[in-house]
Structures are given as C-alpha cells and as structure tokens.
Write a structure and sequence with these properties.
The protein has 193 residues and is an alpha+beta fold. The protein has 2 domains: 150 residues, Immunoglobulin-like (Sandwich); 36 residues. Helix content is 27%, strand content 35%. It has 4 helices and 11 strands; from the N terminus they run ββααββββββββαβα. The strands form 2 sheets. Strands 3-4-2-1-7-10-9 form a 7-stranded mixed β-sheet. The protein has a 4-stranded antiparallel β-sheet with strand order 5-6-11-8, with no helix packed on it. It is elongated, with a radius of gyration of 27 Å. It starts with a strand and ends with a helix.
Length: 193
C-alpha cells in the first residue's frame, strides 16, 4: 500500500495511491481477487480520479490518482478547522482490520504533505519539511491510527508578524507626533527659537 496526499486547500487535495494484494496469499486465504474487483471497491472511496487496474502475475492492484475536495476522500479524515487554522489528517485501520493485519503488508508508505508547518504526528512517522511519512503498518492499526496536524499555510506566525508590524508602525507615528509637539514647546520654555 502506497498513498500520497498533497493538501493544497480544502477544495484541492492531490492524491496518488497504489493498492495491491499478493495473489498467492489471497488464494491461500480463500479470498481470490482480481484487479477489476479491487479497483471497483477502491474507486468508490473517491469521488474523482483516474483508476487503473493491473495484474503483474504476483500482485493484483489498483492505481488511483487525481484531485478532489478534502471532504470527498473517504477512509481518511482530512479536515481544516477554520477557528484554529489547522489541518488534521487521520486514517484508522478499523475499516480494514477484519481482513488485514500489519504483517500482511509487504510494502507500506503513507505520505501527507500539508500547506504549513507540522504541529504533531503519530506513531513512528517522520517529518521532512511539510510532509509526514508513515512506513510502519503497525501505526495504522494502533488505537489512534495515523494522525498528523499542521498549520494551514504559514499558520498564525504570519498573522502575528503582520499585527506586530502594524503596531510598530503605529507606535512610530505616535512617537513622531509627540516629539514634534513636545520639542517646539520645550524650546519655547527654554527661550530657544
């Protein structure tokens, strides 16, 4: 399982997924699967996207890519809290736990790129810039699943810098006005002209 999400804004989340099942293991488990069935199941998880099935002899799989609004991508929660200006990504293993366990995955990588600074990330995930990466499927099956939070854009830092700049400018103007009134008055009191 490989999934990559690039969150640009609430209406535009780019995604690329490669979901594959080992044919031999599926047959041994009494659950033979073909790529068309797999793609039909997986593509229902998305409202939009290009879907391609494949069978390479060892694996049957489905590649899905495209862009959709965050609220249309199923099986993972991608949400923007407008009050805190923070994104949350969460993916729980509960949807697949009855069929799969962590040791069933021969390959596992989930990457989420946020538009701003990473605030928190769960499990054994790693952070590189604005991207959180999970490589251990055990994280998916943990109590909280895969979870990360990040600022939307540059977060409150930019707002505070802008506010600080406005306040500093206002204080400079006030100081200039006070000095231009006080200095002439001080000169008159001392008899200077």
């Amino acid at each position: 399982m490989n999934m990559n999400f690039n969150i640009r804004d609430a209406e535009h989340v780019d995604f690329a997924m490669d979901l594959a099942i080992n044919k031999e293991l599926a047959d041994q488990a009494g659950r033979p699967v073909d790529s068309e069935d797999l793609c039909n199941q997986d593509s229902r998880a998305l409202a939009q996207g290009e879907v391609k099935s494949y069978d390479d002899g060892n694996f049957v799989g489905c590649k899905i890519s495209g862009s959709a609004a965050a609220n249309l991508i199923k099986y993972q929660n991608i949400d923007l809290d407008e009050e805190t200006n923070e994104w949350t990504f969460q993916m729980l293993g509960t949807d697949i736990a009855e069929h799969f366990q962590a040791d069933n995955f021969s390959e596992f990588k989930i990457m989420v790129t946020f538009p701003g600074k990473i605030l928190s990330h769960s499990g054994s995930s790693t952070v590189n810039g604005h991207t959180v990466t999970w490589s251990d499927p055990k994280d998916l099956f943990s109590a909280g699943g895969l979870k990360a939070t990040a600022y939307n854009g540059n977060g409150p830092g930019v707002d505070w810098l802008l506010l600080a700049g406005i306040i500093a400018s206002a204080l400079t103007v006030i100081a200039f006005m006070v000095l231009s009134v006080v200095k002439p008055r001080h000169q008159k009191l001392n008899g200077e002209q």
